[in-house]
Amino acid sequence: VKWRAKHALDTATVMGHCQAQGYDYYVHLEDDIKAAPNYPTKMREWIDEKYAARGDWTLLSFYNPWRVKDGERLKPYNFFGVIGQVFRPSDLPTIAAFLRKNFDDSPLDWLFVDLLTKFKGQIVTHTPSYFQHEGRVSSLQGKTQSSRAVDFIGDRRGM
After folding, report:
1. Domain that holds residue 35
2. Phi/psi class of residue 37: alpha, beta or left (left: φ > 0; alpha: ψ in -120 to 50)?
3. What sequence ranges are listed for the domain MGAT4 conserved region (predicted)?
4. Would residue 7 count as lying in a domain?
5. How many domains, in total, are found in the chain?
6. Does residue 158 sit within a domain?
7. CA distance 41 to 93
8. Among 3, 111, 114, 153, which is least packed by CB within 10 angstroms?
């Protein structure tokens, strides 16, 4: 419980720092992932083309452990992992405050489900996935993490 509480608080701190820097987007990554080549450029192009001027999204997901269509909108209970999630900096103070308030309730990914539910947020998916989860250790005692992106492009040549 201590590790996952620290994880939530650290995430809130990083979000606060990034929001203050004036960046266009905040991308949340974890340390146990593999990334597709050129993912920052590809992500930015997709966001700028389809979502930069729109306010009807809460987060953009570039990691999908199940088959989805590009641009598909998912309900909060479909949220899975905090890998390759993009947020607007204007939303970061609300997210960080929520994490600080609820840091010891649940693992970080569950906190995001609670946050999305509370604020009626929507997840917009990008396919194919630009990230693959490599980690196997869960913060929940006795649980092994086994999810993998079904459409990860990082292993394909020429991408």
Report:
1. 26-88+109-133
2. beta
3. 1-151
4. no
5. 1
6. no
7. 26
8. 3
